[in-house]
Each structure stands twice: as C-alpha cells, then as structure tokens.
C-alpha cells in the first residue's frame, strides 16, 4: 500500500513537472514571438510599445501570438474530444466538417466578394463550419441513435466533397486565389486584436465546458455495454461533447484556416506523456497544442525572413514524422 502511494505521489510530481515545463516554454515562445519577426526588436522597444499601447509589436505581433495560443488550445482539445467520442484515434476537426465547411465559405467570400472586410471572414467561416457539421450530423442520424462509425464515414465523405469544390474554385479563379490559398494552408498572417477578441470567448467557454464534462470522457472509453449498465446517457453526453468539439474546432479554423495535425497528434502525445486520465491529459493537451502552434508560427516568421512560411506547413512538418512513428509503433504492437 505504501509502495502504491509513493508511485501515486511520484506520478503527480511528474505531471506537475511536465505541465510546469510546457507552461514555461509557452512563456518563452510568447516573448520570442514578440521580439523576432521580419525585423527583430529590442526588449526596451517591446516595453515602450506596451506602455503606449501602440506600434507594430502591440498591434500586430501581440494579437498574432494570442491567436496562435487560442487556436492551439481549441484545435487540440477538439481533437481529443473527437477521438474519444468517435472511438477513432485518427479523428480530428476535419471529420465533423469544421475545416472544410469554413474553408469553402471563406474561399467563396475571398473570390466572389473580395471587398468584404477581413474581420468578417472568421464570422462567415464559423457559420460555414456549423452548417457543414449540421449536414454531417443529419446525414449520419438514425432514429435509434447515431453510429460513431457512420458519423465518421459521413464526415470524411462530406469533407472530401467540400474540399473538391474548394479546389475547383481555386482552379477557376487562379489569378485571384492567392489569399484563399494562404488561408487554406493555415496562416495567422495579419491577425489583429479584433480576431483575438472574436476567438477568446469561444476558446474559454469550450475549454470550461470540456472540463465540466471531463469525467464523461473517461467513461466513454469503456465498452458500450458497460456504459449502458452504468446508466450513462451515452447519446446525450456524446451530443454535448460533439457540440463542444464543433465550437472549438470551428472557431479555431475560422481564424487560422487549416492547421494539419494539431488536433490529430497533440492528444496522442499528451496521453503518452500524462496517461489516459482526461482530468490530467486534457489541460496538458490544451497547453501542448498552444505551444505547438505558437512555436510553428514563430518558426514560420524567422526561418527565411522577410518571407513567411504559413504555420500550417510548419505544423505539418512537425506532426507528420510523429504520425508515421505512431503508425509504425501500433504495427509493432500488433
């Protein structure tokens, strides 16, 4: 008994150390993101601009790094919820149409109504994400309850169809599609305080809702028959969690566009480092997701200045090798 207690304490200590390490890294990357870009600035310049609440750092770099943090939290937590609810380790926001639906509406606005104020693009994108997700839920609906496998398959099919339409539009309007391409690759270019103000309520509310439902995430990992015997209202809980995932993924995609691998890889890495208990892994997932997107955005700005590499490309380059590693490891286990 004493041995088990010491293991438990050591486990808690390890988790605290991991979380503290990631939080410190977030602070470091946050500061570096303010200092470095197309033109590096000194710390004194940063302090002066914060005091004056004006200047490039305060008006452009600060909102951008805040958006990166919020997008990382939203996308990674949404991915963790979807992988559990759909019982699919490869599930991500793409499965419920959030990325494709928002992307299609954004491309339509950019190509067909180019004079639309940029701040309205995230609003239209979020609406497109919601419509696409509702369509997927309706197509997957069965009176006796949604099949998670059916929902995932319908989501993949609808998302693929929407992506095909997006590509057709870009080919048709090739001469004026550069801005749409940047959006679809996943970018935080030219984000301002209005974008951060639009995103943060969704991120905070979604994270709070996810933490309030966290015990159900642990329960949903059990076998279906066990869930019924426990009296858990599986359908209601799954619907609530899917709505939370939709809100998080749609709001994130509306600001950053398509960020590959964030919602797919981060939950796996979080479980590997902290264990399967969502009470611990979910906050760590949020922090790790924020760190990845912030670091990806910083690297995209400093690798080949003044040219920028979209953060979506950086996250793909980081996430793809780890994804291959996961597949190989699963193959060895079998």
From TrEMBL:
Pfam families: FecCD (PF01032). Keywords: Cell membrane, Membrane, Transmembrane, Transmembrane helix, Transport. The chain crosses the membrane at residues 61-82, 94-113, 119-139, 151-175, 199-219, 240-266, 278-299, 311-328. InterPro entries: ABC_BtuC-like, ABC_transptr_permease_BtuC. It is a multi-pass membrane protein. Its main location: membrane. It is found in: Cell membrane. Belongs to the binding-protein-dependent transport system permease family. FecCD subfamily. This is Iron complex transport system permease protein. It comes from Paenibacillus tundrae. The lineage of its organism: Bacteria, Bacillati, Bacillota, Bacilli, Bacillales.
